[in-house]
Amino acid sequence: MGSHQESTRDDSPDHLPTPATEAGREGLDALLADPGRAVIALDFDGTLAPIVADPDRARAHPDAVPALAALAPKVAAVAVITGRPAEVAVHHGGFAGVPGLDHLVVLGHYGAERWDAATGTLTAPDPHPGVAAVRAELPGLLERSGAGEGTWIEEKGHAVAVHTRRAPDPRAAFDALRAPLTDLASRNGLIVEPGRMVLELRPPGMDKGAALREYVRELDAASVLYAGDDLGDLPAFDAVDTLRTRNTPGLLVCSGSDEVPDLSKRADLVVDGPEGVVGLLRALAAHLA
Length: 289
Description:
This protein has 289 residues and is α/β, with parallel strands linked by helices. Helix content is 37%, strand content 19%. An 8-stranded mixed sheet has the order 5-4-3-2-1-10-11-12, sandwiched between helices. A 4-stranded antiparallel sheet has the order 6-7-9-8, with helices on one face. The longest helix is centred in the middle third of the chain and has 18 residues, at 170-187. Mean pLDDT is 91; it is low at 1-11.
């Protein structure tokens, strides 16, 4: 894809930034021309919610839910696609019981779980047996690795994540753990998904690209916008690129981060973190009024 650029700053509430690529401009034009067949898909952490040291304390940007509630009735659907359990994302996002969010779904665990705002129902498969085995071995592995100080384990139900952001040297701890965690995962039929100072051990075949493709197909969407901030969002970017080759225009948005240049280089539009994402959602809602 071509080079990206951040939009010229304009604080007016209805300002829509111009994507830096032709494909991105075509995606935005298609969304605006036929919003009733558009899917707006968003990552949660780092995109709708600021990154924090303790993921349990992550909450959606205070203006995110109002922006989503203003936009959701005007498009086919809004999908939050996250590696978190769906119910956790619903709680941390404050998505339940919000007027205007009937068209919102949360696809948790990379699409393995689904929560529908219209009904409040959650569907989820049984956990992969390898997750329990990995969970049992992880504490000993972290202790033996010498990278245990400041690292901690996040339970995610269908996956387990090891965070290094609190370590004295987060990058060194991340690099030291990558190989042993990859070996542990492979011995138990799992894979390792690296992120921003986090290594997640989860079943194969679960990724945001597969979740996005399936949801777009389910709705027979005519256009799609995807916004993310981390390496785990690259499969969703790939999915949008594939959809473009099949005549479904798309817009790729990076919730700006210096930690993940691979994503920002791929994006049609780079915005300033969750605040920028919220601004984009508000602008879309204003243009579709």
